[in-house]
Write a structure and sequence with these properties.
There is one protein chain. By secondary structure, this protein is an alpha/beta fold. The protein folds into two domains: 19-238, Spore Coat Polysaccharide Biosynthesis Protein SpsA, Chain A, CATH 3.90.550.10; 242-281. It has helices spanning 29-45, 66-70, 87-97, 117-128, 185-191, 200-212, 242-254, 259-277, and strands at residues 19-25, 53-59, 77-80, 102-107, 110-112, 132-136, 146-150, 156-160, 181-184, 218-221, 231-233. A nine-stranded mixed β-sheet has the order 3-2-1-4-9-6-10-8-7, sandwiched between helices. A two-stranded antiparallel sheet has the order 5-11. Helix 1 (29-45) links the parallel strand 1 and strand 2 (53-59).
């Protein structure tokens, strides 16, 4: 379980914090500024039905010139790791710094393009359904088994099943994702910290596997509220995730005339050969 050293549910003025907007960042503070301001501008236009909020940034020791920009940001809490330690450590430090009952976790390359009602609705789901620990803001890439439920006003939301399969699966085969989402602080505490000192794609896959193999919490999605788009991805060309970069490269190769057609036919065979050569690292589909 996560211990929260120094975390409190009130800010220095004594105001209760209900919602923490947590931005996870590294060496992309130009995108981070856009992400923060896209959210701040919408919050300034509307209310969150009495919800008090804070802005928290956790940075994985960005080098200059990114570090100088960090210090100029208008946020409530800025956490900078003493040295570069990776996605897992960065996310854990950010979660520990949050004071809110609920956390909206956003990587620095996602721009908010909706209205604050999406946060109100997600909080309503968590307040009314004690089984849901996390609400997605980006639609799952693949169809997943779910149960349809409704809020008192009739708004439908989907609660995804946990598959209880001990092995790893590809990222899109399970509902949890580190793309933008809103979650309970209690969910973070009970699920425990993200794995540290490992490649960033394994941070997500390992946490995803943990979520899928427990029975206390479920992941949800509000199709009518969160569709078509709540957060827009800005950083596709500047991702630090090697799996994402490889997928982007493969996607571009598939579009090449003749070569792409041959590649599509060969890829299943190449996957079998890869998994045979690396049985200890196999990701089950």
């Amino acid at each position: 379980m996560i211990e929260k050293p120094g975390a409190s549910s009130v800010d220095p003025t004594g105001r209760r914090v209900d919602l923490s907007f947590l931005f996870i960042s590294y060496a992309r503070t130009d995108l981070l500024q856009i992400a923060i301001e896209s959210l701040r501008s919408q919050l300034n236009l509307g209310t969150l039905s009495g919800l008090n909020y804070e802005f928290v940034v956790s940075d994985d020791r960005s080098p200059e010139p990114w570090a100088s920009v960090l210090r100029s940001l208008r946020v409530d809490r800025l956490v900078v790791l003493p040295k570069n330690q990776g996605m897992g450590s960065n996310t854990n430090q950010g979660v520990w710094a949050c004071r809110g009952k609920y956390i909206v976790q956003i990587q620095d390359d996602w721009r908010f393009v909706a209205t604050p009602v999406v946060f109100e609705r997600a909080v309503q789901v968590l307040e009314s359904d004690k089984e849901v620990g996390l609400v997605l803001y980006v639609e799952p890439d693949n169809p997943l088994p779910f149960q349809a439920r409704r809020l008192e006003d009739g708004t439908e939301y989907w609660v995804f099943e946990n598959d209880h399969f001990q092995g790893f699966r590809t990222g899109s085969a399970r509902p949890y994702s580190d793309r933008p989402h809103l979650k309970r602080m209690d969910f973070c505490v009970e699920m425990g910290p993200y794995r540290e000192r490992c490649p960033m794609h394994w941070v997500e896959l390992e946490f995803q596997r943990r979520v899928a193999n427990q029975s206390r919490w479920k992941v949800a999605w509000l199709p009518s509220v969160h569709s078509p788009t709540v957060f827009e991805h800005m950083g596709a060309g500047r991702s630090f995730n090697p799996v994402y970069r490889r997928a982007t490269l493969l996607g571009s190769q598939r579009c090449i005339p003749l070569l792409g057609q041959g590649f599509r036919r060969l890829r299943p065979t190449l996957r079998v050969l890869r998994d045979f050569a690396r049985p200890g690292k196999r990701i089950h589909r």
